[in-house]
């Protein structure tokens, strides 16, 4: 696992994975903005968080999983999937503020960058940037449709 061929293969697979995530996210929000985007977003964010959990547990950084960005992502997932029924107006407001406030500003604050061959860096960017894009789209493009 500590040899150069393993890391070259891991970088290649990470590049393919990162490219697929970015292209599929842009395709889904452009082609299916009101029907399939939100289930895709739910599966993608949960997948990124699961990848992050396995990585952090293997390195011994599992206490970093008790962070605001994960709770913000869960609140956004609860809001867009309508978990609490019709009385979730306050939850949507909180999710919108988390997605467009703290999580969006943390991309600049933590200097998240688009490094396609590093899955950990791409996961950090996705966990902080994708909620901003999703909640902005939900407020300004989806609510008018309903």
Notes on the protein architecture:
The chain has 146 residues and is mainly α. The chain has one domain. Helices cover 75% and strands 0% of the residues. It contains 5 helices and no strands. It is globular, with a radius of gyration of 16 Å. The mean pLDDT is 87.
Q: How far is the first residue's CA from the last residue's CA?
A: 51 Å
Q: Return Rg in Å.
A: 16 Å
N-to-C SSE string, H for helix and E for strand: HHHHH
Anisotropy-based shape:
globular
Please estimate the helix content.
Answer: over 70%
User: What number of domains?
Assistant: 1
Q: What is the strand tally?
A: 0
Oligomer: single chain
Biggest sheet character: none
Helix/strand/pairing category: mainly alpha
Helix run count: 5
Strand content: under 5%
Mean pLDDT across the residues is 87
- Identify low-pLDDT runs: none
Describe the structure concisely for a colleague.
The protein is an all-alpha fold and 146 residues long. The protein is 75% helix and 0% strand.
Give the topology, please:
Layout (H helix, E strand, L loop, with lengths): L3 H28 L5 H23 L8 H13 L8 H21 L9 H24 L4
Note the main attributes of this structure.
146 residues, mainly alpha, 75% helix
């Amino acid at each position: 696992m500590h040899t150069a061929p393993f890391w070259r293969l891991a970088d290649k697979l990470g590049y393919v994975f990162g490219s697929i995530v970015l292209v599929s996210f842009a395709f889904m929000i452009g082609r299916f903005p009101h029907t399939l985007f939100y289930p895709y977003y739910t599966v993608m964010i949960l997948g990124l968080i699961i990848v992050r959990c396995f990585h952090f547990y293997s390195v011994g950084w599992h206490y970093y999983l008790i962070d605001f960005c994960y709770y913000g992502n869960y609140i956004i997932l609860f809001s867009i999937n309508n978990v609490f029924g019709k009385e979730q107006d306050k939850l949507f407001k909180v999710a919108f503020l988390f997605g467009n406030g703290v999580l969006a500003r943390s991309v600049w604050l933590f200097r998240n960058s688009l490094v396609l061959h590093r899955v950990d860096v791409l996961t950090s960017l996705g966990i902080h940037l994708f909620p901003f894009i999703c909640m902005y789209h939900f407020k300004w493009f989806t609510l008018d449709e309903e």
